[in-house]
Design goal:
The protein has 223 residues and is an alpha/beta fold. It is 26% helix and 17% strand.
Length: 223
């Protein structure tokens, strides 16, 4: 278990239902920049315009995630530049990125900041947001609901999420129930990426898929 530039209040949300997805295995999400495997991602908006060739891909560039994380190889389209919020303390790495202030979320695409937003959370972040930070988190979801596409990427698996951290007094089933309910209510997709490297790769793919749809790539949903 997430509009028009300069007009955040307009309702141009996706007709697709929100998704609650768990990526627990490496084969479900390509860490090397390829397309997702079986049960792959479905971006939140239909393609605009006719079919277009896939944009050329730049050579794979190994990117080493900070703080001892496993290296992640990214292969984003040359044209896409990922926008990283200035408040993101432990940002993901991308082939091309720009640090700037975002109204909502931690990641977006430069030029599409009012249309797509991705929020990154660790398991501990998620429980804190669902507990003491509950009211603030719901306000953030309300803001995310106004985007064409918005998602929350949680750096843990669903089974691990159901084991509440020691500091949290919140029942794990109640936490999962809140995520499901709010995902449906605010139409914000929630993905359990498994770990940080998969969260990095998933975020890149979501941003790139959305960018390709906005540039008329009718094949962006394949794979």
């Amino acid at each position: 278990m997430p509009q028009v530039p300069g007009q955040r209040g307009a309702d141009h949300r996706s007709p697709h239902p929100p998704q609650l997805r768990a990526f627990d295995h490496a084969e479900e999400l390509d860490l090397h920049g390829g397309e997702p495997g079986p049960g792959g991602l479905r971006p939140g908006r239909p393609a605009r315009g006719g079919a277009a060739d896939h944009p050329p891909q730049s050579p794979a560039a190994p990117v080493h995630a900070p703080s001892g994380d496993a290296p992640v190889t990214t292969r984003a389209s040359p044209e896409i530049v990922v926008a990283i919020d200035t408040r993101e303390q432990k940002p993901y790495r991308f082939a091309r990125s720009e640090v700037k202030t975002l109204a909502s979320g931690d990641y977006s695409v430069v030029g599409l900041e009012d249309r797509i937003a991705i929020e990154r959370k660790t398991k501990e972040d998620a429980y804190s947001s669902l507990g003491q930070g509950r009211a603030r988190f719901e306000r953030e979801l309300q803001r995310l609901s106004r985007f064409d596409y918005a998602a929350i990427v949680i750096e843990t698996s669903l089974p691990d999420f159901l084991r509440a951290p020691a500091f949290s007094r919140m029942n794990s089933k109640a936490a999962a129930g809140s995520i499901v309910a709010w995902s449906v209510k605010y139409r914000v997709c929630v993905f359990f990426a498994g770990d940080r490297p998969h969260g990095n790769a998933l975020t890149r793919q979501l941003l790139e898929k959305f960018w390709r749809y906005q540039n008329g790539d009718a094949d962006a949903g394949s794979g």
